[in-house]
């Protein structure tokens, strides 16, 4: 059974928290802090949960410790910073369970890799012109996809440490929406396929050829997308979770509590217990046991 | 014939010599002694029984003779005339015998009577004597007993005891030699001694009386002197009033106040005492006074007899009125309501003066039947204030003291027991009568020492001094700051309505020198309008917007962009900051639900308000918030990425210095102004 634990930014004054809508995101990075959902981690090993805030550091908590009072982080890592004038932020992270490293999307435009065993930052991949919003890991290959503010999706190879592929999404007529911007916010990949969106429309790409195959007709910018079985789940501006088929049809549009979705998290392990949690611009977290409708919401007391 | 005539004659006393009995009285007297009947002497000799026998014989003879005469007469008259005459003569003789016998009988009787009479008289005399003697005996006995019982007055006199007597009395009186042996002399001596003593004491008594009289007279004189002093003292007091005022020690005034304060009901009295104490000790600008009619207050507490009379009078009056006109049910209920909501005739006024000479007048009333206190507020400003239209509610007496403490809106009665009283007379809630009675805030009850526990009706809640004291200081501070903040807002509103956001010199460093966006409109809006706006739902849901708050709408413009800001102002401004909800109309409607930057702008004013307080006590918060809104709107508009599909240059060229335009997964704009470098960065 998945255990959900979230962390709050204690800096915000309590009476204003609801107004600030602390977006508590599960599984992915959030501005106030995010956690990795336990389903991503093996249940039997007390894993550390890397967490970050909008600050320039990564913190990790022990999953077992989190439920207790006065829990303190296990470790904190701070990537090297170039300028002291403005400290950048970490916008996204992805954990590679098998090889124990974390890929970080940095606000200074670099993708970094932190080795969890040694604690050192092994790679610093530069290429983005602006901040990097999101990273995605390819399953079989040691490659990292990153999407950024400059409107590009870049593919990095970790063995060489070089950029392998560059897709300038905003240059493609089918998906670009200049009135919304060219920034790429959501990125997901499965085998050879990639889905990305943001300012441009959510599009399904074939990675090897680097061409857009399907453009999903969602008017609002999307913030997070997932591959799930034969669907793409995505959420963004607007209180809806979109269930999209790879052909481009909209299978469903499920209403959710938050006004805008920021983070979706699926329990990937057991296919019979399908649990999806979503979080966004709301003090409540929605839980789905069936993708068709919202089962219940979690709220803070 | 002669027999007949002799029969006719009364039995007269006939003299033996045969003279007729008609004798005059004069002769009769002398004759009476001579008149003596032979029968009188014969009576003693003859035997009565024999006389009786003779009588019987004679009667028989007569009867026989009569019978014979009869017989003879029946035979014939002439023949027997001589026999008849013979017989007649015999019968006459017999008659004579009878007469004699009769006389004898009478005389016997008479004699017998005389003898009896004599004896009786003797007996009576003896009897009388006996009675007399007995009477005398009794009399004497009584006298004896009287004499025996006689208590001489001397026995009532309490004499000193014998030992004392012999001790104190001088020998010529006590004469112990004689008196010890004879009790009579002893008593006499004692009496003498007593008399002497009493005479002495009477002398002393007279002397004392005279001295007492003298002293009384002296007392009278002195009393007069003293009473003549009182008006003089009063005149001195009057004369000293100007001196008191000059020295700022209004004792007289205070004294009068304390006099009046004695008639206050307990909660008002507690309030008066605590407020005066606090004013004297800590706060020279707090003035306490009592207003109202003391006579009416006295009239409330009349002694029972008077009130009984009054009751009977009023009963009579009531009967009269009910006979004349039956009041309708509504009028009766109305009267009952008025009775229940009656105020005590005295009220306590508190005047809080502020440094700039603005005064907050508070009048505290006590509702007697409900046991709650209410307050009415009024503000007098030192200078005439230009009334801004939107500032209408700021200083209104109705809402000035709303929520002085959080949640204390003063619409409900704080005494839970009142609900039962209200049900009886059909009052729904006290808030209907608040405009005339004043607001029953909880802090007012606490100042009067009345503590009502929540949701539990108590029998009586008595005024408690310690409760009042502990709240006095804080409440006065809150009242002052409330007044100051309201006045500051008043001034600010006047400026805001003209489109100028007043920023004081201390706060200039919070903002860049050049801000292009301008405040165009500032109005007050009612709560219902605020609630209908689509972008204020979050605030209402979070419980930050209630109907006790004040609501305003600000409009900031730059070029074609119009920013609407709905403001909810908590009565506890400026400790509790106002909350802004934004909606930007520029190429579409953007608000916090669909644009993260708008939400970031809201958080700039709502969450990071502590930077905007300005110098203490922070009344410039609102204006600084508005200025900051203008500033962030500038940043927002200037940092919008250029839309290549639209021809022409950007409507808002970037003039603000920003390090980075976008940061974070929310892609926020840099809204934070850094002083003195003057650039914008992200938080």
From TrEMBL, chain A:
Keyword line: Repeat, WD repeat
Composition bias type Polar residues, residue spans: 34-47
Does the record bear GTP-binding in its keywords?
A: no
Q: Which InterPro entries match?
A: THOC6, WD40/YVTN_repeat-like_dom_sf, WD40_repeat_CS, WD40_repeat_dom_sf, WD40_rpt
Q: Which terms in the GO cellular component ontology are assigned?
A: THO complex; transcription export complex
Q: WD repeat boundaries? A: 125-166
A GO BP annotation: mRNA export from nucleus
Renumbered to this chain, region (Disordered) spans 1-48
Q: Where are the transmembrane segments?
A: none
Regions of compositional bias (Basic and acidic residues) in chain numbering: 12-26
PANTHER family documented for this protein: THO COMPLEX SUBUNIT 6 HOMOLOG (PTHR44411)
> What protein family does this chain belong to?
Belongs to the WD repeat THOC6 family.
The name on file for this protein is THO complex subunit 6 homolog
UniProtKB/TrEMBL annotation, chain B:
The answer to whether UniProt assigns keyword Lyase to this entry is no
Principal location listed in the UniProt entry: nucleus
Q: Where's it found, cell-wise?
A: Nucleus
- A single MF term (Gene Ontology): mRNA binding
Gene Ontology CC terms: THO complex part of transcription export complex
Assigned keywords, A-Z: Nucleus
Using the UniProt annotation, give all residue ranges assigned to the region (Disordered).
Answer: 1-40, 299-329
UniProt biased composition (Basic and acidic residues) = 22-40
Q: Where is the composition biased (Acidic residues)?
A: 306-319
Q: What superkingdom heads the lineage?
A: Eukaryota
Taken from the record, one Pfam family name reads: FmiP_Thoc5
What protein family is recorded? Answer: Belongs to the THOC5 family.
- Under which name does UniProt file this protein? THO complex subunit 5
Q: Which taxonomic lineage is given here?
A: Eukaryota, Metazoa, Chordata, Craniata, Vertebrata
Gene that specifies this protein: THOC5
């Amino acid at each position: 059974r998945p255990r959900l634990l979230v962390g709050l930014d204690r800096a915000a004054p309590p009476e204003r928290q609801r107004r600030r809508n602390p977006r508590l995101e599960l599984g992915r990075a959030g501005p106030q802090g995010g956690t990795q959902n336990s389903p991503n981690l093996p249940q039997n090993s007390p894993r550390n949960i890397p967490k970050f805030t909008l600050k320039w550091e990564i913190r990790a908590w022990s999953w077992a410790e989190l439920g207790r009072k006065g829990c303190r982080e296990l470790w904190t890592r701070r990537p090297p910073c170039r300028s002291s004038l403005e400290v950048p932020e970490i916008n996204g992270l992805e954990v590679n369970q098998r090889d124990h490293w974390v890929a970080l999307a940095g606000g200074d435009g670099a993708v970094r890799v932190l080795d969890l065993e040694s604690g050192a930052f092994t790679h610093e991949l530069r290429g983005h012109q602006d901040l990097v919003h999101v990273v995605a890991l390819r399953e079989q290959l040691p490659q990292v996809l990153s999407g950024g503010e400059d409107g590009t999706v870049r593919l990095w190879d970790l063995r060489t440490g070089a950029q392998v592929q560059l897709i300038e999404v905003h240059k493609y007529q089918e998906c670009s929406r200049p009135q919304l911007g060219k920034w790429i916010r959501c990125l997901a990949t499965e085998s050879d396929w990639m889905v990305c969106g943001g300012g441009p429309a959510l599009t399904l790409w074939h990675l090897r050829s680097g061409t857009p195959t399907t453009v999903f007709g969602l008017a609002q910018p999307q913030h997070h997308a997932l591959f799930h079985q034969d669907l793409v789940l995505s959420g963004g501006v607007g209180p809806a979770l979109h269930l999209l088929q790879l052909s481009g049809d909209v299978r469903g549009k499920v209403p959710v509590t938050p006004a805008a979705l920021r983070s979706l998290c699926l329990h990937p392990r057991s296919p019979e217990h399908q649990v999806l949690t979503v979080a966004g611009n709301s003090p409540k977290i929605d839980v789905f046991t069936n993708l068709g409708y919202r089962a219940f919401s979690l709220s803070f007391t | 014939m002669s027999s007949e005539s002799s029969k006719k004659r009364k039995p007269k006393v006939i003299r033996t010599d045969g003279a007729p009995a008609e004798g005059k009285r004069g002769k009769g007297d002398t004759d009476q002694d001579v008149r003596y009947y032979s029968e009188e002497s014969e009576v003693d000799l003859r035997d009565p029984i024999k006389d009786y026998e003779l009588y019987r014989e004679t009667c028989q003879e007569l009867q026989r003779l009569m019978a014979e005469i009869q017989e003879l007469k029946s035979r014939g008259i002439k023949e027997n005339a001589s026999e008849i005459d013979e017989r007649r003569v015999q019968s006459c003789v017999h008659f004579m015998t009878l007469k004699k016998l009769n006389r004898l009988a009478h005389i016997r009787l008479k004699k017998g009577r005389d003898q009896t009479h004599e004896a009786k008289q003797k007996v009576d005399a003896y009897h009388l004597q006996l009675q007399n003697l007995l009477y005398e005996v009794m009399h004497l006995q009584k006298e004896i007993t009287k004499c025996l019982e006689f208590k001489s007055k001397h026995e009532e006199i309490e004499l000193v005891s014998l030992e004392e007597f012999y001790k104190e009395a001088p020998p010529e009186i006590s004469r112990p030699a004689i008196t010890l042996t004879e009790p009579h002399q002893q008593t006499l001596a004692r009496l003498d001694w007593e008399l002497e003593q009493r005479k002495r004491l009477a002398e002393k008594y007279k002397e004392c009386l005279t001295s007492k009289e003298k002293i009384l007279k002296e007392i009278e004189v002195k009393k007069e002197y003293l009473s003549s002093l009182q008006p003089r003292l009063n005149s001195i007091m009057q004369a000293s009033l100007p001196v008191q005022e000059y020295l700022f020690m209004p004792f007289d005034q205070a004294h009068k106040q304390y006099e009046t304060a004695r008639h206050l009901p307990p909660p008002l009295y507690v309030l008066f005492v605590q407020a005066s104490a606090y004013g004297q000790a800590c706060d020279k600008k707090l003035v306490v006074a009592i207003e109202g009619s003391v006579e009416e207050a006295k009239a409330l507490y009349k002694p029972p007899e008077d009130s009984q009379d009054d009751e009977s009078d009023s009963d009579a009056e009531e009967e009269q009125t009910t006979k004349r006109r039956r009041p309708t049910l509504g009028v009766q209920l109305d009267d009952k309501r008025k009775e229940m909501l009656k105020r005590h005739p005295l009220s306590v006024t508190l005047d809080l003066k502020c440094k700039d000479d603005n005064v907050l007048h508070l009048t505290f009333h006590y509702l007697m039947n409900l046991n709650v206190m209410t307050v009415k507020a009024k503000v007098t400003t030192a200078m005439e204030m230009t009334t801004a239209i939107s500032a209408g509610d700021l200083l209104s007496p109705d809402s000035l003291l709303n929520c002085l403490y959080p949640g204390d809106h003063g619409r409900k009665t704080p005494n839970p027991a009142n609900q039962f009283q209200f049900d009886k007379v059909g009052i729904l809630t006290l808030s209907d009568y608040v405009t005339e009675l004043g607001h029953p805030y909880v802090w007012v009850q606490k100042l009067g020492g009345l503590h009502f526990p929540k949701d539990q009706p108590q029998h009586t809640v008595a005024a408690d001094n310690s409760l009042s004291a502990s709240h006095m200081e804080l409440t006065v501070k809150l009242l002052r700051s409330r007044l100051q903040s309201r006045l500051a807002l008043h001034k600010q509103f006047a400026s805001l309505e003209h489109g100028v956001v007043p920023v004081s010199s201390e706060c200039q460093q919070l903002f860049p020198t050049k801000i292009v966006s301008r405040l165009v409109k500032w109005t007050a809006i009612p709560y219902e309008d605020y609630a209908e706006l689509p972008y204020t739902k979050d605030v209402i849901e979070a419980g930050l917007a209630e109907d006790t708050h004040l609501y305003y709408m600000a409009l900031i413009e730059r070029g074609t962009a119009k920013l609407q800001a709905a403001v909810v102002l908590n009565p506890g401004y400026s400790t509790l900051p106002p909350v802004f909800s934004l909606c930007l109309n520029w190429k579409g409607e953007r608000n916090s639900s669909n644009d993260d930057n708008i939400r970031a702008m809201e958080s700039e004013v709502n969450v990071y308000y502590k930077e905007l307080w300005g110098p203490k006590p922070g009344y410039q918060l609102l204006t600084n918030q508005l200025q900051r809104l203008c500033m962030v709107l500038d940043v927002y508009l200037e940092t919008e990425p250029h839309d290549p599909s639209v021809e022409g240059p950007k409507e808002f060229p970037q003039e603000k210095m920003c390090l980075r335009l976008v940061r974070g997964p929310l892609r926020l704009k840099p809204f934070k102004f850094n002083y003195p470098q003057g650039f914008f960065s992200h938080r």
